[in-house]
Amino acid sequence: MKKIVKVFAWFIILLTLASLLYGVSNYESIKSLSQTAVEDYGVPAVFIISFLLDLFPQFLSGHNLVLVAGLLSMNPYKVVVAVLIATFLASVIGFWLGKKFGGEVFKEIFGKKNYKKIDKGMKKYGKWYTAISAISPLPYIPIIFGSLDMDWKDFMIYGVVPRMLGFLITAIFVYTALPLVLKFFGT
Fold first, then answer.
1. Is residue 150 pLDDT above 70, yes or no?
2. Can you tell me the distance from the alpha carbon of 17 to that of 136, in angstroms, rounded to the nearest whole number?
3. Which of 32, 46, 61, 170 has a C-alpha 20 to 30 A away from that of 85?
């Protein structure tokens, strides 16, 4: 059983690393692909893409999906529910993976320099670093928060809740203010 867990762990690690490398080198094509998938496949695509973007470290966020869905006039309630469930599941799974496999493995994946930078931010700002990364353009990487031995309760309060609130605020903007902005500019 231990051998199966190790094989699965290395598979997840390699998949995360490949995803990160692919995401960095193909940012524009991923952005275009996600927009096309949302347009073609609707809410299920929003869920799957949002889940993958929060589970595997990317520079593209699920916030973009909410914007694209709004521009495509998709049902706001379905989009928001899909994104919230996906981000919750991805955050919890990512955090658990970090807790399970620890910092040494993720230092190798993300690089010691990046890992130390996040560790330094966590030591300096504590749980607020997690909250800021959850709602800002800083990378939101639950796997690393877990590997830094953050408490589950703190992660839920300072990571997951702000992340979900950020999506809700984005959705409110997209579905209420964005149509007014587009109308104002005549588009």
1. yes
2. 23
3. 32
